[in-house]
Give the backbone structure.
Amino acid sequence: DQQVKQNSPSLSVQEGRISILNCDYTNSMFDYFLWYKKYPAEGPTFLISISSIKDKNEDGRFTVFLNKSAKHLSLHIVPSQPGDSAVYFCAAVNRDDKIIFGKGTRLHILP
Amino acid sequence: DVKVTQSSRYLVKRTGEKVFLECVQDMDHENMFWYRQDPGLGLRLIYFSYDVKMKEKGDIPEGYSVSREKKERFSLILESASTNQTSMYLCASSAQGPREQYFGPGTRLTVT
């Protein structure tokens, strides 16, 4: 059973527009969430995180929103740039410090 | 500039061979991790270590073992490689549990 779900395998967004990547989780014991970005032939790089005591965290063009009642988080990228084309992984950490990753969403930024 | 390095970018091994994947980090991190990434399956945790000489099983430890004799080095061992272990292997380290991990570039292992 998938505890962290990224239901969209891919997403295409026009350059300059907003990209919204979604992630759902099933376990209410998760208390920390992260987003990683991965280019082909490279390891993932940490992008942004959020604790369960918050509902929003912002870092430049990247904002993560957490809706605990819906067990849903989203990553907003505004404005989208060509270099944002990559695979994005959502991850959740539970109170036992166990991490689970989603399967990833491939984002294509269109010129 | 923080760095996690992995011994090989590409590796081809035969079924039944013993395979060593080495990972070294220069950030003095306590915590190190091994994952494999497969298409459609995302990142799956194989083993992790929160201290020297300490190891814990992740979600898919079968067929693997690890060694952490020094803080900066974490090795993944495939005792007898099988074709279903063909994958991208990623090592990571972190200062605080599994949070904000720094990943190496990965080793693409092919077992024939």
Remarks:
- The longest strand of chain B covers residues 31-38.
